[in-house]
Amino acid sequence: AQSVTQPDIHITVSEGASLELRCNYSYGATPYLFWYVQSPGQGLQLLLKYFSGDTLVQGIKGFEAEFKRSQSSFNLRKPSVHWSDAAEYFCAVGAYNTDKLIFGTGTRLQVFP
Amino acid sequence: ETGVTQTPRHLVMGMTNKKSLKCEQHLGHNAMYWYKQSAKKPLELMFVYNFKEQTENNSVPSRFSPECPNSSHLFLHLHTLQPEDSALYLCASSGRGEGSNQPQHFGDGTRLSIL
Predict the structure, then answer these.
(1) B97: which of A85, B9, B59, B102 fits an S-S bond (Cβ 3.0–4.6 Å)?
(2) Does B109 contact chain A (CB < 8 Å)?
(3) Residue of A1, A54, A55 whose CA lies nearest to A25
(4) Using one digit for the tens of pLDDT, what is the confidence trace for B55-112?
(5) SS3 letters across A31-69
(6) Is the bond preceding residue B8 a cis peptide, omega within 30 degrees?
(7) Cβ of A101 and B100 within 8 Å?
(8) A26-85 residues touching B, CB cutoff 8 A
(9) How far apart are CA A104 and CA A92, in angstroms?
């Protein structure tokens, strides 16, 4: 069965610092992987997705993620965090030819000035 | 992003009330979803519709009744809810491409509180 683990419930960084949010998945075949961001009072916004090809994918707002099959990971990174990046981040995995996405429990990012 | 619109944004109801949540998508998508988001729990998929047909019911109690009259509209009818049903209910839509490789686009949700 598919599953997603986001080991960090809460991360705090200073503005301008680099960021890495961890995501590990469990799936028997090549997964479809997504990162979403949710600001307070809003729905989820897609940051980036991985289906195949280049394992380093670029997303919106300066985010990128790297798919590492050997580690079953899809970590999200940003070289320099802005205060507006404070939000909750969700990793999700989908299987081929289904409509289901399995979401992690999320990582709440707090940014200090 | 306003491609998926949910109304109302907030809803407070008693356990004996009947109410409905509405979702409308303006993205030309074919699939629509209801999710429940509770504190400290992963997002829970409730229902999936493709071309107006329900393709997924994730063991949701019958006090939640979905309706999809067309590919652009999705409703969630609520009756005799329990306090544990208080949560944020999110609607999403996606294009019906091959597999699940079409990202889901989310509305801003309805915050439901059961008294």
Answers:
(1) B102
(2) yes
(3) A1
(4) 888 889 999 999 999 989 999 999 999 999 999 999 999 986 544 567 899 999 999 9
(5) CEEEEEEECCCCCEEEEEEECCCCCEEECHHHCEEEEEH
(6) yes
(7) yes
(8) 32, 34, 36, 41-46, 49, 51
(9) 6
